[in-house]
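Hi support team,

I'm filing this because I wasn't sure whether my run with zinc ion finished correctly. The job status page said complete, but I'd like someone to confirm that the output block is well-formed before I use it downstream. Pasting the exact inputs I used:
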Amino acid sequence: MNVTFLPKCYLSVCGKVFRKGLTEMVQTNVIECTNCGNLILIAATQKSRTCPYCGVRVETRRANKVASAEDAFTASRVVRSLKEQKKLHRDGQSAR
Ligand SMILES: [Zn+2]
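And here is everything the job wrote out:
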């Protein structure tokens, strides 16, 4: 197996796909899309990013910053745990 190319699509985390060098070791923020509310990773140096969910361009300054992490990998883990929390919360309210 030869994984040399990660799609531009950000951080589909499968645990160990990431290596130093591949991962952007830059401070990464987690923001909420101003349009659809999904969580997006964005490098702290980036001013805007197109939301992968709805395609709207999100400006960092306008978006609600949920968290920040020291690198993209950590940020992706933050996103995952946030999503888990949301899911749990939703399940707890709707079903059962
Ligand atoms: Zn969006």
